[in-house]
Amino acid sequence: MTFEAEESVTLETNVTGDNIRVEDVPPTGVVVVEHADSAALGEAAKKKVPKEAPKWELEARERVIGAIKKYSKPLSDLIKRDANEGDTRLLITDFLCDGLGYDKYSDLTTEYRVKGEFADFGIRLDKQLAAFIEVKRATTRLNVKHLRQVEMYAVNEGVAWAILTNGSDWQVYHIGAGMPVEIDLALDVNILANPKGAAQQLFYLTRDAFRRNLIDELWKARRATAPKALVQALLSENVIDSVRKEIKKRSGQNVDPKEIARLLRETVIRGDCA
């Protein structure tokens, strides 16, 4: 896969709209890591922010910001009148094209048939199916049932990415290829409740970023700091041994490593993470 030369430009452009500015949005050097199990989304895990960003990236971010500003009112109107799923899908189509840079005819396919069911959208990149999108009406609260629906599409077609949206909420899941299927939430934003954060995160869904697999890096960073991954690190032999040495240093007691691991599991680590 080849890409055009990436001209770099500084992040000094000042594009404002609903209090979102390009300089507020971190370039691709910043990876935001969020945890689905916390009430407030986790603090961003940041790499060093480069002083410059490629021209394509700056343009993509500006496009997302502009689309959020443009479609926030129509989306709010859909919610107020409890618009049906078809009307919501019309707005999503426009947002995918205007905001995320997809071509309506070459990149998007609608009513994609999967074993007798129909996915609302399929995203094609370089003629390869890359993701499924399931759209729910603007007032519908996204839930596990909806996830299972789009998960089925992805698993049956061997697609790694599944997207759920009702227009305001956007959830992006990575679907593992092995069995049992592992599903990781890579992105979860609401463009009405948090337009600035949505602009930062939805950049990873733009056509240009998706083609460069930047969403994969976001997912890998999040997966590395997911609760179960942290528990595995905490219960690793090296960490347990360090805890044992620290306990001995503080108390003079040489506690068996297996006992330390048991106590951590039963008294320190939350049950659903162990």
Characterization of this structure:
With 274 residues, the chain is of the alpha+beta class. The chain folds into 2 domains: 18-225, tt1808, chain A (Alpha-Beta Complex); 228-273, no CATH class. Helix content is 41%, strand content 20%. It has 9 helices and 10 strands. It has helices at residues 55-80, 85-98, 144-157, 195-202, 207-211, 214-224, 227-234, 237-251, 257-268, and strands spanning 8-10, 16-17, 20-21, 52-54, 108-114, 117-125, 128-135, 161-165, 169-175, 183-190. The strands form 3 sheets. Strands 5-6-7-8-9-10 form a 6-stranded mixed beta sheet, sandwiched between helices. α1 packs antiparallel against α2 (85-98) and α1 packs across α4 (195-202). The longest helix has 26 residues, at 55-80. The radius of gyration is 22 Å and the shape is elongated. The two termini are 41 Å apart. Mean pLDDT is 82; it is low at 1-49.
Number of discrete helical segments: 9
The global form is elongated
Strand order of the largest sheet: 5-6-7-8-9-10
For the record, what CATH class of the largest domain applies?
Alpha Beta
